[in-house]
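The protein record filed here.
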Amino acid sequence: MNRMRTVALLAALAFLALCGCSDRSAEKRGRAALEKMKESLPDVETKALAQKVTPEQVKQAQESLLAVKEYLGEPDGRLDSVTVNAIEAFQRAHGLTEDGMLNDKTERSLQEAAASAKR
């Protein structure tokens, strides 16, 4: 009985030693997992900044965002990170897909919200 305990204890110690002697710490494994997750996520802002919209569309969106207090800049028709972030905030607040894209649904919702805000 004593011998079986000793063998079991030695086996447990060997297992713990093997697990603890890994060349990668838990922190390194965690960092690697985080990087892998980041790589798998789509870069929403880059896609939004690359969308094909006219300066007139952007300026109209900025004016509407200004009216609903989601944008604080000067409506200039330039699609930049501040504008994309304001679009995303508006989309989030109105139950739209939060992607920063000025699609028909977002533009229509922006115009309706701006019209309501001006009343």
Observations:
- The mean pLDDT is 86.
- The chain has six helices and no strands.
- The two ends are 87 Å apart (CA to CA).
